[in-house]
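To whoever is on call:

I kicked off a structure prediction for a single chain this morning and the downstream step that reads the tokens threw a length-mismatch warning. I double-checked the sequence; it's 199 residues and nothing unusual in it as far as I can see. Pasting both halves so you can look.
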Amino acid sequence: MKLQSEKAASTEDRILEAALDVIRTHSISGTRISLVAERAGLFQSNIHYYFKSKRDLLFAVLQRTYNRCHNIRGELRKNAEHTLEKQLDIFFAQKKQFILHETQYDYAELDFWAMTRLDSEVKFLFSASFRGWREEIARVIARYAPHVSHERRDFLAALMVSMMEGATLQYLVDQDAFQLDAYFDSCRNMILAQLETEE
């Protein structure tokens, strides 16, 4: 029984990875179940066994993107020093990993962001994932800089998310625009400087 569930998980993972790759090369609007099946080396019927529609598949891709962010940050957190600076660096390191090594997630995220203008369900889910991201940052600030007000924590969390998403937008279009390490070092230092003004 366990072997069968592992096989199912493996096939589902294969489908989701193929879908991410198709989205990266064709965008969400250009994604077809037939393309995902071809990329995964499966029949279309295999895809429909796991995902009844393209929409179901897309929502699973959105969830996978969200989970991947959390998993990377969780792994980074295991070895990070317990200081505000190093804990903030976890968020920047995760975004840097996406930008440099796992661009399929960033391309999917950008496409989902564009969908929020026309699809209220995608907007709801996407908004929830961004809210979770901001709340996670705010919790780190609360733990390591408890003197900072709730409103200020929320503002700085939103500012950090904007910095990271801004890096994605610019770097994926023009990798020569700036040096990523220097960019994220400056972002962290700006946030720390803002926090110091609260003391």
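Update from on-call: the warning came from a stale cache, not from the record. Cleared it. Sanity check on the structure: Residues 63-196 form a domain with the Tetracycline Repressor; domain 2 fold (CATH 1.10.357.10).
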